[in-house]
Amino acid sequence: MTMQRRDFAAALTAALAAPAVLGAAPAQADERRGEGDLSRDMLAALTAELGGDRHTAKALVPLLQDVGFDWHPETAPLKKFDFVVAYGFGNRPPAGGGDPAKVLFEPGPVNEALADTVARVRSRIDVPVYAQWEIARFLDSKYGMRDVTSIEPVIAADGTITYLSTDGVAAQILEHRKKAPGGVGTACVIGFRDHHKRCVQTTRDRAMPAYAPAGITVPGTYDPESGQAWTRRRDLYLVHDMVAQLTVLRTKLIAQAYPNG
Asked: What keyword terms does UniProt attach to this protein (predicted)?
Protein backbone atom coordinates (compact mmCIF):
# COMPACT_ATOMS: atom_id res chain seq x y z
CA MET A 1 0.00 0.00 0.00
CA THR A 2 1.39 3.42 -0.96
CA MET A 3 1.74 6.26 1.55
CA GLN A 4 -1.13 8.12 -0.17
CA ARG A 5 -3.41 5.14 0.20
CA ARG A 6 -2.40 4.66 3.84
CA ASP A 7 -3.14 8.32 4.52
CA PHE A 8 -6.56 8.10 2.86
CA ALA A 9 -7.43 4.83 4.59
CA ALA A 10 -6.46 6.32 7.94
CA ALA A 11 -8.59 9.41 7.25
CA LEU A 12 -11.57 7.28 6.24
CA THR A 13 -11.25 5.03 9.30
CA ALA A 14 -10.94 8.02 11.62
CA ALA A 15 -13.97 9.73 10.07
CA LEU A 16 -16.18 6.65 10.38
CA ALA A 17 -15.02 5.82 13.91
CA ALA A 18 -15.13 9.28 15.47
CA PRO A 19 -18.63 10.57 16.24
CA ALA A 20 -17.23 13.99 17.10
CA VAL A 21 -16.03 14.48 13.54
CA LEU A 22 -19.23 13.21 11.92
CA GLY A 23 -21.38 15.22 14.29
CA ALA A 24 -19.47 18.46 13.83
CA ALA A 25 -20.97 21.46 12.10
CA PRO A 26 -19.77 21.96 8.51
CA ALA A 27 -17.37 24.75 9.48
CA GLN A 28 -15.81 22.59 12.19
CA ALA A 29 -15.42 19.69 9.80
CA ASP A 30 -13.66 21.96 7.31
CA GLU A 31 -11.21 23.00 10.03
CA ARG A 32 -10.31 19.36 10.67
CA ARG A 33 -9.77 18.58 7.01
CA GLY A 34 -10.49 20.81 4.00
CA GLU A 35 -12.96 19.45 1.48
CA GLY A 36 -10.53 20.16 -1.32
CA ASP A 37 -7.78 18.22 0.42
CA LEU A 38 -10.11 15.28 1.01
CA SER A 39 -11.25 15.22 -2.61
CA ARG A 40 -7.67 15.29 -3.86
CA ASP A 41 -6.63 12.50 -1.49
CA MET A 42 -9.61 10.39 -2.46
CA LEU A 43 -8.97 10.93 -6.16
CA ALA A 44 -5.30 10.02 -5.89
CA ALA A 45 -5.95 6.95 -3.73
CA LEU A 46 -8.81 5.65 -5.85
CA THR A 47 -6.97 6.27 -9.12
CA ALA A 48 -4.06 4.20 -7.82
CA GLU A 49 -6.41 1.48 -6.52
CA LEU A 50 -8.16 1.30 -9.92
CA GLY A 51 -4.89 0.81 -11.78
CA GLY A 52 -4.55 4.39 -12.97
CA ASP A 53 -8.16 4.75 -14.15
CA ARG A 54 -8.51 8.43 -13.26
CA HIS A 55 -11.68 8.85 -15.34
CA THR A 56 -13.63 6.33 -13.26
CA ALA A 57 -12.10 7.57 -10.02
CA LYS A 58 -13.14 11.12 -10.88
CA ALA A 59 -16.73 9.97 -11.41
CA LEU A 60 -16.81 8.04 -8.12
CA VAL A 61 -15.14 10.50 -5.75
CA PRO A 62 -18.01 13.05 -5.47
CA LEU A 63 -20.48 10.20 -4.95
CA LEU A 64 -18.40 8.59 -2.20
CA GLN A 65 -17.76 11.97 -0.61
CA ASP A 66 -21.46 12.80 -0.55
CA VAL A 67 -22.53 9.43 0.87
CA GLY A 68 -19.73 8.93 3.37
CA PHE A 69 -18.54 12.39 4.38
CA ASP A 70 -21.54 14.73 4.18
CA TRP A 71 -24.21 14.24 6.83
CA HIS A 72 -25.84 17.67 6.78
CA PRO A 73 -29.05 18.33 4.83
CA GLU A 74 -29.70 21.56 2.99
CA THR A 75 -31.58 24.04 5.19
CA ALA A 76 -34.10 26.82 4.66
CA PRO A 77 -35.71 29.44 6.95
CA LEU A 78 -38.99 28.54 8.65
CA LYS A 79 -40.94 31.15 6.68
CA LYS A 80 -40.33 29.14 3.50
CA PHE A 81 -42.34 26.08 4.59
CA ASP A 82 -45.92 25.06 3.86
CA PHE A 83 -46.01 21.88 5.95
CA VAL A 84 -43.92 19.77 8.32
CA VAL A 85 -42.83 16.19 7.67
CA ALA A 86 -41.52 14.16 10.61
CA TYR A 87 -39.83 10.79 10.13
CA GLY A 88 -39.51 8.30 12.98
CA PHE A 89 -36.32 6.66 14.18
CA GLY A 90 -36.16 3.41 16.13
CA ASN A 91 -38.78 2.15 18.58
CA ARG A 92 -39.13 -0.09 21.63
CA PRO A 93 -40.40 -3.70 21.74
CA PRO A 94 -44.08 -4.06 22.74
CA ALA A 95 -44.36 -3.37 26.46
CA GLY A 96 -46.98 -6.05 26.95
CA GLY A 97 -45.21 -8.66 24.88
CA GLY A 98 -47.12 -10.69 22.32
CA ASP A 99 -46.40 -11.52 18.71
CA PRO A 100 -44.26 -8.61 17.40
CA ALA A 101 -45.59 -9.29 13.90
CA LYS A 102 -49.08 -8.36 15.12
CA VAL A 103 -48.46 -6.06 18.09
CA LEU A 104 -47.30 -2.51 17.49
CA PHE A 105 -43.90 -1.63 18.88
CA GLU A 106 -43.72 1.23 21.39
CA PRO A 107 -42.66 4.63 19.92
CA GLY A 108 -39.69 4.97 22.29
CA PRO A 109 -37.71 7.96 23.63
CA VAL A 110 -36.09 9.02 20.36
CA ASN A 111 -39.45 9.52 18.72
CA GLU A 112 -40.61 11.50 21.74
CA ALA A 113 -37.59 13.76 21.25
CA LEU A 114 -38.50 14.12 17.58
CA ALA A 115 -42.05 15.05 18.61
CA ASP A 116 -40.58 17.71 20.92
CA THR A 117 -38.70 19.10 17.93
CA VAL A 118 -41.88 19.22 15.86
CA ALA A 119 -43.59 21.07 18.71
CA ARG A 120 -40.81 23.68 18.74
CA VAL A 121 -41.23 24.23 15.02
CA ARG A 122 -45.02 24.40 15.24
CA SER A 123 -44.75 27.03 17.95
CA ARG A 124 -43.17 29.26 15.28
CA ILE A 125 -45.06 28.31 12.11
CA ASP A 126 -48.73 27.31 11.96
CA VAL A 127 -48.70 24.70 9.18
CA PRO A 128 -50.02 21.14 8.81
CA VAL A 129 -47.90 18.28 10.18
CA TYR A 130 -47.49 14.85 8.63
CA ALA A 131 -45.77 12.61 11.14
CA GLN A 132 -44.82 8.96 11.18
CA TRP A 133 -47.10 7.28 13.72
CA GLU A 134 -44.41 6.90 16.40
CA ILE A 135 -44.05 10.68 16.50
CA ALA A 136 -47.74 11.41 15.98
CA ARG A 137 -48.61 9.47 19.14
CA PHE A 138 -46.61 11.96 21.24
CA LEU A 139 -47.92 14.97 19.33
CA ASP A 140 -51.38 13.84 20.43
CA SER A 141 -50.78 12.56 23.97
CA LYS A 142 -48.14 15.07 25.05
CA TYR A 143 -49.09 18.19 23.09
CA GLY A 144 -52.70 17.70 21.98
CA MET A 145 -51.54 19.12 18.66
CA ARG A 146 -54.14 19.83 16.01
CA ASP A 147 -53.79 19.49 12.23
CA VAL A 148 -51.58 16.41 12.48
CA THR A 149 -51.85 13.53 10.00
CA SER A 150 -50.41 10.30 11.35
CA ILE A 151 -48.73 8.05 8.78
CA GLU A 152 -49.62 4.59 10.04
CA PRO A 153 -48.13 1.17 9.33
CA VAL A 154 -50.04 -1.14 7.00
CA ILE A 155 -52.07 -3.80 8.84
CA ALA A 156 -53.20 -6.81 6.80
CA ALA A 157 -56.53 -8.59 7.23
CA ASP A 158 -54.86 -11.22 9.43
CA GLY A 159 -53.41 -8.52 11.69
CA THR A 160 -49.85 -8.73 10.36
CA ILE A 161 -48.11 -5.36 10.58
CA THR A 162 -45.91 -3.96 7.83
CA TYR A 163 -43.91 -0.92 8.94
CA LEU A 164 -43.28 1.68 6.26
CA SER A 165 -39.79 2.57 5.10
CA THR A 166 -38.68 6.20 4.90
CA ASP A 167 -39.68 6.18 1.26
CA GLY A 168 -42.99 4.50 2.09
CA VAL A 169 -43.78 7.30 4.54
CA ALA A 170 -42.83 9.93 1.94
CA ALA A 171 -45.09 8.26 -0.63
CA GLN A 172 -48.05 8.43 1.76
CA ILE A 173 -47.38 12.08 2.55
CA LEU A 174 -47.25 12.97 -1.14
CA GLU A 175 -50.73 11.49 -1.63
CA HIS A 176 -52.03 13.71 1.17
CA ARG A 177 -50.29 16.80 -0.20
CA LYS A 178 -51.69 16.30 -3.69
CA LYS A 179 -55.07 17.09 -2.16
CA ALA A 180 -53.89 20.26 -0.38
CA PRO A 181 -55.70 23.42 -1.57
CA GLY A 182 -52.49 25.25 -2.47
CA GLY A 183 -50.71 22.30 -4.06
CA VAL A 184 -47.89 20.22 -2.70
CA GLY A 185 -45.82 23.11 -1.28
CA THR A 186 -42.44 22.99 0.46
CA ALA A 187 -41.68 20.53 3.25
CA CYS A 188 -39.95 21.30 6.54
CA VAL A 189 -38.32 17.95 7.27
CA ILE A 190 -37.69 16.78 10.84
CA GLY A 191 -35.58 13.66 11.35
CA PHE A 192 -32.98 12.13 13.63
CA ARG A 193 -29.57 13.78 13.16
CA ASP A 194 -27.85 10.99 11.22
CA HIS A 195 -31.05 10.14 9.31
CA HIS A 196 -31.90 13.76 8.55
CA LYS A 197 -30.05 14.17 5.26
CA ARG A 198 -31.64 11.03 3.80
CA CYS A 199 -35.06 12.15 5.04
CA VAL A 200 -34.69 15.36 3.03
CA GLN A 201 -33.40 13.50 -0.02
CA THR A 202 -36.20 10.92 0.14
CA THR A 203 -38.85 13.63 0.43
CA ARG A 204 -37.39 15.36 -2.63
CA ASP A 205 -37.26 12.07 -4.52
CA ARG A 206 -41.02 11.90 -4.03
CA ALA A 207 -41.39 15.21 -5.91
CA MET A 208 -41.81 17.40 -2.83
CA PRO A 209 -39.47 20.39 -2.41
CA ALA A 210 -37.85 19.81 0.97
CA TYR A 211 -35.30 21.25 3.39
CA ALA A 212 -34.27 20.92 7.00
CA PRO A 213 -35.33 23.91 9.14
CA ALA A 214 -32.49 26.38 9.66
CA GLY A 215 -31.62 27.03 13.31
CA ILE A 216 -33.45 23.97 14.64
CA THR A 217 -31.41 21.29 16.43
CA VAL A 218 -32.71 17.76 15.91
CA PRO A 219 -32.23 14.79 18.28
CA GLY A 220 -29.02 12.80 17.96
CA THR A 221 -28.83 10.50 21.00
CA TYR A 222 -29.18 6.80 20.21
CA ASP A 223 -31.42 4.44 22.17
CA PRO A 224 -29.48 1.27 23.10
CA GLU A 225 -32.79 -0.47 23.79
CA SER A 226 -34.31 0.23 20.39
CA GLY A 227 -36.18 -2.64 18.79
CA GLN A 228 -34.29 -1.95 15.55
CA ALA A 229 -30.73 -3.15 16.06
CA TRP A 230 -29.27 -0.76 13.48
CA THR A 231 -30.64 2.25 15.39
CA ARG A 232 -28.94 1.39 18.70
CA ARG A 233 -25.42 2.61 17.89
CA ARG A 234 -24.06 5.35 15.69
CA ASP A 235 -21.36 3.28 13.98
CA LEU A 236 -23.91 0.63 12.96
CA TYR A 237 -26.50 3.14 11.85
CA LEU A 238 -24.14 5.11 9.65
CA VAL A 239 -23.27 1.95 7.72
CA HIS A 240 -26.99 1.18 7.41
CA ASP A 241 -27.70 4.69 6.13
CA MET A 242 -24.82 4.64 3.64
CA VAL A 243 -26.12 1.36 2.23
CA ALA A 244 -29.57 2.94 1.86
CA GLN A 245 -28.12 6.02 0.15
CA LEU A 246 -26.04 3.89 -2.21
CA THR A 247 -29.01 1.70 -3.09
CA VAL A 248 -31.01 4.75 -4.20
CA LEU A 249 -27.98 6.21 -5.96
CA ARG A 250 -27.42 2.95 -7.86
CA THR A 251 -30.99 3.01 -9.18
CA LYS A 252 -30.70 6.65 -10.27
CA LEU A 253 -27.35 6.18 -12.00
CA ILE A 254 -28.51 3.15 -13.95
CA ALA A 255 -31.68 4.97 -15.03
CA GLN A 256 -29.65 7.98 -16.13
CA ALA A 257 -27.13 5.88 -18.06
CA TYR A 258 -29.73 3.62 -19.67
CA PRO A 259 -33.11 5.43 -19.64
CA ASN A 260 -34.60 2.89 -22.02
CA GLY A 261 -33.51 -0.11 -19.97
From this structure: Signal
